[in-house]
Amino acid sequence: VYNRGSSMILVTGPTGCVGKAVVDRLTTSGHAVKCLWHWGHEHRVPPRVALTGGDVRNLDSLRLAMMEDEIEAVIHLASIRRETDADKFDDVHVKGTRNVIEAAKQANIKRLIMVSAIGAEGRSAFPYLRSIGKAEEQVRSSGLNYTILKSAVVYGDGDWLTTWLGGLASDVPLVMPIPHSGDTKLQPIWVGDLAACVERSLQTRSTFRQIVPVGGPQALTLAEIAQITM
């Protein structure tokens, strides 16, 4: 099935909007892909991939995922947008990233690609961005050949932004309430383009140990994005 040798690429978070696009991009290009499949998920299994049950919060599951096959690189996409009693930002983003780094080192995997977010910083006032920023700091100090893609807001199948806007339009069909009068400027990137950036980073040495901001070709206000979504 694969035409790039026996080594594989491990993807964490393969069931999210970005994860599905990255897995599809890699398999279509002929890469051998292994997905860290969260226990209890009922998502459709992608074709042409190997699966291993696990959770980035569980170090043993990561060790098993990385050591039972020859893994050449890890693409770390596991993330949550909302906290619950069971899922906390720091547990998934900070502890999860620390576990990914530790397991990669134990398995002698040198290459790590992480998708982060523009605005993520360890001192951010926003818990989501603060936790992602702390995860970035761990990757930068890991000693691995990392690439951090700091992405603008992503749109595509199952993205959080247009799903949220669509929900607002359904709940309040005549008047859509938009934060900050809709003047907030964003530079949305299509998930397929972000997936292409991830794949290109795999072998592009100029991206090693680099933080690369990526965004779409056009700056739009939140109000404009809402109109397009509707």
Characterize the structure shown:
The protein is of the alpha/beta class. Helix content is 37%, strand content 21%. It contains seven helices and eleven strands. The strands form three sheets. Strands 3-2-1-4-5-6-10 form a seven-stranded parallel β-sheet, sandwiched between helices. A two-stranded parallel sheet has the order 7-9. It is globular and about 55 Å long.
Summarize this entry quickly:
With 230 residues, this protein is an alpha/beta fold. The protein has 7 helices and 11 strands.
Rg value: 18 Å
The assigned structural class equals alpha/beta
Strand order of the largest sheet: 3-2-1-4-5-6-10
Sketch the major β-sheet.
7 strands, parallel
Nearest-integer average pLDDT = 90
How are helices and strands ordered from N to C? EHEEHEHEHEEHEEHEEH
- Report the end-to-end length measured between terminal Cα atoms: 41 Å
Low-confidence stretches: 1-5
* Total count of strands: 11
Strand content: 15-25%
Shape, per Cα inertia axes: globular
Tally the helices: 7
Helix content: 25-40%
List keywords for this structure.
230 residues; alpha/beta; two-stranded parallel sheet; 11 strands; 37% helix
Secondary-structure map with pairings?
Elements: E1 8-12, H1 17-28, E2 33-37, E3 49-53, H2 59-67, E4 71-76, H3 89-106, E5 111-117, H4 127-140, E6 145-151, E7 154-155, H5 160-171, E8 185-186, E9 189-190, H6 191-203, E10 210-214, E11 220-221, H7 222-229
Parallel strand pairs: 1-2, 1-4, 2-3, 4-5, 5-6, 6-10, 7-9
Antiparallel strand pairs: 8-11
